[in-house]
Amino acid sequence: MALKFFNTLTRTKEDFSPINKKEVLFYTCGPTVYGYPHIGNYRAYIFADTLKRVLIYSGYKVKHIMNLTDVDDKTIRDSQKENKTLKEFTEFYTKEFKKDIESLNIINPKKFTKATDYIDEMVAIIKKLLKKKLAYKSKDGSIYFDIKKFKNYGELSHLVLENQKENAGGRIVKDEYEKDNIQDFALWKAWDEKDGDVFWETELGKGRPGWHIECSAMSMSNLGDQIDIHTGGVDNIFPHHENEKAQSEGSTGKQFVKYWMHNEWVLVDSKKMAKSAQNFYTLRDLVNKGINPIAYRFWLLMANYRTRVNFVWEALEGAETALKRLYGLYMELGDSIGKVNKEYQKKFKEFIDDDLDTPRALTVLWDVLKDENITNADKKATVLDFDKVFGLGFENLKEEKIPAEVEKLVKEREQARKNKDFQKSDELRKEINSLGYEVKDTAEGPRLQQL
Ligand code: AMP
Ligand code: ZN
What we know:
By secondary structure, the protein is α/β, with parallel strands linked by helices. It is 43% helix and 18% strand.
């Protein structure tokens, strides 16, 4: 069976057939490095990673590029607030992002591209658009994309009706805006006092790029004019991806992306988790509660990427308990690795090939572990095979024997806490730390983690 993916462009599930049979060209809109991403953002990267793993599992070579937005309205605003240069500010959050990616067992893309490394390429695209009269310069020197001149504007978001386009007078300089505010958008923003020392002197004048042109330039420079897959969260469909598509196709005259794929939101109390709504959690919040970030990955895999999920701590804790049970069952299988069970593998593949149906694929994993008719060695091989897609880290599991000395100290510390002898409990915590363990107090009692 062929791989099937839901394509936002056509709003249908389509058979996947890459442009170049040998290598899939894949671009993911990466983070704006202006703060710690929230766990909602990580759904976008876990989704892209799962998709990449499914492609690799199916035998494809994948060339995957992810950008880092290190210049835009938000990075400039917040670096100024913190009195830092744009570079030192964005480099700090880039490092933190890379650490998070690792803790979620996300395979690194072939390349992380920084927007500020591609200014020349952006200028070249804008010059082409000006030449083709798809863009124009405004009085203040900024350059805008003329959406009425591009006949397919709105094809991706399916939202721009002819009359909306007619009403779409005016221009928008901001990077982010809503669907009811469709207007000509900025490709190049002429320098303004608020930008401080962030500007480039180019043939287009002194200024900086708009957010959307950054991804067009990074995608086309690294992967060519036409690619197979472009991913992001659904909020990227408009305006970001609609605008990327318009700029790229406007400049080359060719289809930019064959399959546009988008993950749905993580909600909190039925509202989208967002930095601006102040209803977000970061991976640090999870770790501070003693929760393994992989449990978050596992929780997300229990839902299809195209359904909204409502985040509650109890659900995540439940996922962690289930994951530990899976780990436990796996650890009981012994050391030898046999053969992958073909029947289960067939079922598993059917599910993941069907637009990444990870919830059903996970049921196959449980079935394998519970099946009494296959040997432990074959179970082990099958679990490791499925984990190439799930990325739950089974291959890294090691028998973790907590030293008796540490266990004894934890018990003594619990007793000290019961006796309200906090000085002693603090001393014991330090002693536990010195032996390479961290103890976290949770509602269910103390939890131990290796440092
Ligand atoms: P940003 O750094 O704001 O560009 O967002 C990074 C990625 O996270 C984009 O692909 C967004 O679409 C995605 N995203 C933002 N908020 C959420 C959310 N609550 N749930 C799922 N994805 C999200
Ligand atoms: Zn992008």
